[in-house]
């Protein structure tokens, strides 16, 4: 509060911004990426090729992007929130129309140097747009249902588009991240209860009309994995065996038999946490989750330190988004929820998710740098 | 401004709630991780090991079977086997078409191969054909480029070099059937064969050895990645038999003069069986890759039953070879001694029944030696009438009749020594005196195997000791059996008297087997002939003087002869049975002559050598 009194300003030059950069936050982000490097090194059987080296390069590129994003004035991001959202939506539609087929779902656009997943971009820009919207809404206005029409549409459109792809994991993440911002903006608890009730009521309808067979299979397998140990249940059964056999201290780096012998499916992407915890055990798994908690705490501290509503909502919205990846992915590999195909951020192999997450960290850093901005309400 | 403060308050409160919820989720995840990795660690560790560790068995060579001098009777030959690896085959029809240029593959075999392919993982070799000869192997090896996925590997297959003559002793091996399945891992080896008969069956456990195993780390599709540990296989034990292969061959040739015959030659003091023959034999190598239906039918339907080991499983009325037993029972009971004579008129009448002697004119007054020498039936009728069946049966059992002798190959029969209890149990009726009278000359219910007759003779000449015959001399160099010699309680003078009677059979002109005597000095044998009725001689036949040779083969008498040699200090004994051979002294005795001469010439017991030793 002392600082809030001291500096309340609306512009900063480049040098001031560099001095405000939060290096320790960046350090912990890098530590997680390094963990990812070694996990991918192990996934390739003790080889930086093909995944770990590309992971490092992607992180390098993403780091530059993060710094650039952080250096851009927060007001610019506030101004670009809706245009970026529109661009994201457009990319999703393009993917829908002429995207390439991959894994049975149309999910990416080939940019030449990488495959871009618009749904990953969308996760960030939705939060950007919602933060922008709610930063100008008073506590009283939040209680007015009319105020919620726009943000509901902001969430609803991309959700429908990724559901068509179909990408259930991303759709759930958009909805949950959006709900978090609703929650932080002061939407009455009772409404959440109502929404949750409505969602439960929707399940049978969604099951009947919207879910694809493979998605239904995943849910059925989740409910009873032993039913089909060599089919759809195979992944989750083998993942649990890998985790369980890791024990307290793990089998040791590069000694994870389940992953090295290919019993573990998709070990470099969705099941990377399994590989990590098989080799490093319960202790390693907890240390990695601890690192995620550290990043979460940074997000919270930055949000509380921010003097503007946009920054606060953006920082917590993006932190929540990051944690959603973590929660969904880890729950999935431990057999707590059905397999939905969400990577472990900064660890899993895959370009779009990493760049998207680093983009998010760049924005949080930007919020930190511009924490003393007092953005006008209107 | 106050508005902003409100918003910050709401935001802060909500942020704390959300943050707490997130930490709670982390807590839940950590708890789940702890449950999986700590509480359930053991279970998952086991599952993980089960996943990653594969077992592969290493074959053990089946032990050799040799004769007493190390001549191989059962060996392992190279067996070239063609396999295919499914994942390397593109077009099965083309492959089988190409393969058929070099080996015979029936449609049925191809169907079987296709079933195996479906059953196994795609990189596990499937057996296509085994027992390839050199030419086929070379052809396939040469054409491998046209046969993608095919390779030839060398395995082992059982072979019996002396085939026919040792078939009944050594036996043969075959595929494991369900009843023979145990948890010995060696049974799951491809191409494993188990002993089905003979020594191969009796000593199967020792012969088969122990399969080794390699524990390998395998990946998710079962491919081996690296070897973790290895336990080498242990080859089967070498079983050395008491048999002398050359004597065995010789005996088999001698017996082959007759349509169906068997013989046992053994050491009277050790129980070692030197030869055990059943003629005709069969070729056990026929069973190696599965016998054809025609060959099997031929063996099964052959009138002389070549698959039967008649030396241990053939049960015959012992006929006059049983008279030594009746005589010893009489001597023991004291109703006769060396000088007791009985009068033979050619017939003995009991009540209204007439019991004929084989010599219709009768033998006149004769003592025990004379009765054995000329095989007078009436002499034994008369003493058995006084003795009763129980005393005769008791004596018979002392000599190993009516019970299995425990020779170490399967299929031995126990023969039959009848008595009151047996008759009551079997027929529910009382024993008749007439039945005792026919039993005294080894007819009626009495049955004995050639092995029992040889053993009986051995116990007669070895001073009345219970030796039992056996075939396995040593297993991997260790003696397979300890002979227990228990006295059967017959005074030596009784035995000597009977042996003198047996010697008179061959050594005196009046003896029934004088023509079959061994003339070579020092090799002379004693013995006793027997001719046992298969069918009762009817009154009409006796009146018409029908010759037994004129009856159908199946109805003719069995010809038997038991012998011991050398005559001064008998060491070797033998029993010869010629099925439906008509005359014991005319048919069986000459065969015994050849066999007993040969076994002495081969000096298997080392008598000659021992004599020389003692001289020095």
Structure description:
The complex is a heterodimer of chains A (378) and B (616). By secondary structure, chain A is mostly helical. Chain A has one domain (14-369). Chain A is built from 16 helices and 3 strands. Chain A has helices at 2-6, 14-20, 23-43, 52-71, 74-98, 118-134, 139-142, 149-164, 168-184, 189-209, 213-223, 233-246, 257-260, 272-305, 309-333, 351-369, and strands at residues 100-102, 105-110, 115-116. Chain A has a 3-stranded antiparallel sheet with strand order 1-2-3. In chain A, β1 (100-102) and β2 form a beta hairpin. In chain A, α6 packs antiparallel against α8 (149-164), α6 packs parallel to α9 and α12 packs across α14 (272-305). Chain A is globular, with a radius of gyration of 21 Å. In chain B, the strands form 6 sheets. In chain B, strands 2, 3, 4, 5, 10, 17 and 18 form a 7-stranded mixed sheet that branches. A 5-stranded antiparallel sheet of chain B has the order 12-11-21-20-19. A 3-stranded antiparallel sheet of chain B has the order 1-8-9. Chain B starts with a helix and ends with a helix. At the A-B interface, α9, α12, α14 and α15 of A face α1 and α2 of B.
């Amino acid at each position: 509060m002392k600082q809030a009194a001291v500096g309340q300003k609306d512009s900063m030059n480049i040098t001031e911004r560099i001095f405000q950069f939060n290096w320790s936050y960046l350090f912990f982000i890098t530590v997680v990426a390094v963990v990812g490097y070694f996990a991918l090194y192990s996934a390739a059987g003790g080889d930086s090729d093909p995944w770990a080296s590309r992971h490092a390069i992607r992180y390098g590129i993403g780091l530059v992007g993060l710094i650039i994003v952080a250096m851009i004035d927060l007001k610019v991001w506030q101004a670009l929130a809706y245009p970026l959202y529109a661009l994201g939506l457009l990319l999703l539609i393009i993917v829908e129309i002429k995207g390439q087929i991959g894994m049975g779902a149309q999910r990416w656009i080939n940019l030449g140097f990488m495959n871009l997943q618009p749904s990953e971009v969308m996760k960030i820009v939705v939060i950007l747009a919602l933060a922008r919207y709610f930063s100008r809404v008073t506590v009283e206005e939040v209680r007015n249902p009319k105020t919620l029409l726009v943000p509901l549409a902001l969430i609803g459109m991309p959700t429908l588009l990724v559901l068509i792809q179909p990408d259930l994991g991303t759709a759930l993440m958009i909805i949950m991240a959006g709900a978090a911002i609703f929650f932080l903006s002061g939407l009455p608890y009772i409404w959440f209860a109502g929404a949750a009730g409505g969602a439960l009521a929707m399940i049978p309808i969604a099951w009947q009309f919207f879910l694809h067979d493979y998605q239904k299979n995943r849910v059925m397998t989740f409910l009873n994995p032993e039913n089909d140990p060599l089919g759809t249940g195979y992944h989750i059964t083998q993942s649990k065996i890998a985790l369980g056999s890791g024990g307290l201290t793990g089998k040791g780096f590069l000694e994870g038999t389940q992953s090295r012998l290919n019993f573990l499916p998709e070990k470099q992407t969705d099941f990377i946490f399994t590989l990590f915890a098989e080799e490093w055990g319960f202790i390693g798994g907890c240390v990695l989750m601890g690192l995620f908690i550290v990043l979460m705490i940074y997000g919270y501290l930055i949000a509380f330190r921010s003097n503007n509503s946009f920054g606060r909502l953006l920082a917590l919205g993006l932190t929540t988004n990051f944690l959603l990846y973590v929660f969904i992915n880890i729950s999935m590999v431990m057999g707590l929820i059905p397999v939905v195909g969400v990577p472990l951020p900064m660890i899993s192999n895959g370009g779009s998710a990493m760049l998207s997450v680093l983009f998010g960290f760049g924005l949080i850093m930007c919020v930190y740098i511009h924490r003393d901005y007092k953005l006008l309400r209107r | 401004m106050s508005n902003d403060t409100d918003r910050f308050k709401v935001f802060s409160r909500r942020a704390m709630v959300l943050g707490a919820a997130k930490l709670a989720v982390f807590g839940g995840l950590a708890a789940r991780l702890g449950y999986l990795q700590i509480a359930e660690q053991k279970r998952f560790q086991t599952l993980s090991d089960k996943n990653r560790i594969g077992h592969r068995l290493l074959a053990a060579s089946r032990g050799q079977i040799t004769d007493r001098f190390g001549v191989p009777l059962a060996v392992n030959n190279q067996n070239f086997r063609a396999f295919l690896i499914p994942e390397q085959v593109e077009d099965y029809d083309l492959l089988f078409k190409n393969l058929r240029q070099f080996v015979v593959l029936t449609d049925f075999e191809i169907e079987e191969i296709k079933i195996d392919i479906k059953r196994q993982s795609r990189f596990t070799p499937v057996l296509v054909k085994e027992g390839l000869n050199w030419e086929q192997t070379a052809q396939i090896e040469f054409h491998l480029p046209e046969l993608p996925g095919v390779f030839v590997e060398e395995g082992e297959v059982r072979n019996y070099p002396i085939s026919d003559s040792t078939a009944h002793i050594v036996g043969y091996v075959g595929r494991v059937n369900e009843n023979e399945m145990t948890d010995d891992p060696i049974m799951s080896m491809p191409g494993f064969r188990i002993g089905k008969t003979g020594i191969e069956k009796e000593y199967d456990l020792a012969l088969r050895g122990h399969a080794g195993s390699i524990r390998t780390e395998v990946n998710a599709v079962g491919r081996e990645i690296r070897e973790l540990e290895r336990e080498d296989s242990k080859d089967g034990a070498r079983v050395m038999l008491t048999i002398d292969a050359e004597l065995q061959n010789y005996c088999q040739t001698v017996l082959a003069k007759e349509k169906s015959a068997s013989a046992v030659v053994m050491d009277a003091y050790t129980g070692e069986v030197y030869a055990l023959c059943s003629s005709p034999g069969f070729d056990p190598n026929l069973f190696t890759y599965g016998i054809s239906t025609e060959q099997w039918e031929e063996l099964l339907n052959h009138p002389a039953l070549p698959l039967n080991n008649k030396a241990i499983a053939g049960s015959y009325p012992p006929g006059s070879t049983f008279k030594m037993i009746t005589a010893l029972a009489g001597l023991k009971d004291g109703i006769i001694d060396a000088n007791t004579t009985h009068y033979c008129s050619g017939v003995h009448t009991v009540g209204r029944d007439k019991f004929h002697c084989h010599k219709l004119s009768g033998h006149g007054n004769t003592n025990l030696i004379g009765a054995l020498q000329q095989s007078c039936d009436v002499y034994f009728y008369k003493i058995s009438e006084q003795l009763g069946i129980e005393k005769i049966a008791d004596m018979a059992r002392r000599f190993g009749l009516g019970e299995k002798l425990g020779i170490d190959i399967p299929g031995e029969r126990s023969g039959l020594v009848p008595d009151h209890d047996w008759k009551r149990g079997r027929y529910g009726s009382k024993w008749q005196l007439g039945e005792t009278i026919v039993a005294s000359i080894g007819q009626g219910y009495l049955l004995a195997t050639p092995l029992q007759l040889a053993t009986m003779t051995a116990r007669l000449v070895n001073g009345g000791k219970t030796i039992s015959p056996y075939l396995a001399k040593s297993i991997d160099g260790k003696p397979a059996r300890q002979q227990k010699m228990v006295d059967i309680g017959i005074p030596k003078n009784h035995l000597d008297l009977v042996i003198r009677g047996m010697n008179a059979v061959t050594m005196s002109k009046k003896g029934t087997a004088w023509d079959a005597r061994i003339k070579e000095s020092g090799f002379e044998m004693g013995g006793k002939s027997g001719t046992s009725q298969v069918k009762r001689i009817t009154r009409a036949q006796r009146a018409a003087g029908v010759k037994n040779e004129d009856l159908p083969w199946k109805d003719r008498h069995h010809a038997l002869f038991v012998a011991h040699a050398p005559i001064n200090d008998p060491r070797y004994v033998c029993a010869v049975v010629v099925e439906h051979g008509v005359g014991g002294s005319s048919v069986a005795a000459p065969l015994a002559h050849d066999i007993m001469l040969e076994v002495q010439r081969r000096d298997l017991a080392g008598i000659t050598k021992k004599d020389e030793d003692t001289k020095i």
